[in-house]
Amino acid sequence: VQLQASGGGLVQAGTSLRLSCRASGLTFSRYGMGWFRQAPGKEREFVTAITWSGGSTYYADSAKGRFAISRDNAKNTVYLQMNSLKPEDTAVYYCAAYSGTFVYSRLSEYKYWGQGTQVTVSS
């Protein structure tokens, strides 16, 4: 199983960025997907998740109103649209896959992890 995250970069505060995560080696449409992030010196934290069908989503408070998760099962890809970026959004962003019906925010629920993509937001 491979989860390939891409789309990170260096951007200015207030701008937008869209991350993508393409999955291979698994039946993508049977897995819920999530995005996590880890800033230097901090623990990895939940950002958002989406069920296998895309019918339900869940966001951390830090992401509500600014970030949007979506998925395209035909392309085996999950997206994270990030708007109004802030310097505190700077982190390595990871996509991950879980098996289950509901949306999960705990790291332990996720079975597969991608390698991460760096997002740096300058002030």
Strand portion, in percent? over 45%
End-to-end CA span: 37 Å
What ranges have pLDDT less than 50 throughout 5 or more consecutive residues? none
How do the SSEs run, as a string of H and E? EEEEEEEEEEE
- Share of helix, binned: under 10%
> Count of helical segments?
0
What structural class do helix, strand and pairing data support? mainly beta
| Topology, number of strands | 11
Assign an overall shape: globular
Overall pLDDT score: 97
Describe the structure.
This protein is mainly β and 123 residues long. 0% of the residues lie in helices and 50% in strands. It contains no helices and 11 strands. The chain has strands spanning 2-6, 9-12, 17-24, 32-38, 45-50, 57-59, 67-72, 77-82, 91-98, 112-113, 117-122. The strands form 2 sheets. Strands 2, 4, 5, 6, 9, 10 and 11 form a 7-stranded mixed beta sheet that branches. A hairpin with a 6-residue loop joins strand 4 and strand 5 (45-50). The protein is globular, with a radius of gyration of 13 Å. The model has no long low-confidence stretch (mean pLDDT 97).
Short description:
By secondary structure, the chain is an all-beta fold. It contains no helices and eleven strands.
Q: Could you list some keywords that capture this structure?
A:
0% helix, 50% strand, mainly beta, 123 residues, 11 strands
Topology:
Blueprint: E1 2-6, E2 9-12, E3 17-24, E4 32-38, E5 45-50, E6 57-59, E7 67-72, E8 77-82, E9 91-98, E10 112-113, E11 117-122
Parallel strand pairs: 2-11
Antiparallel strand pairs: 1-3, 3-8, 4-5, 4-9, 5-6, 7-8, 9-10, 9-11
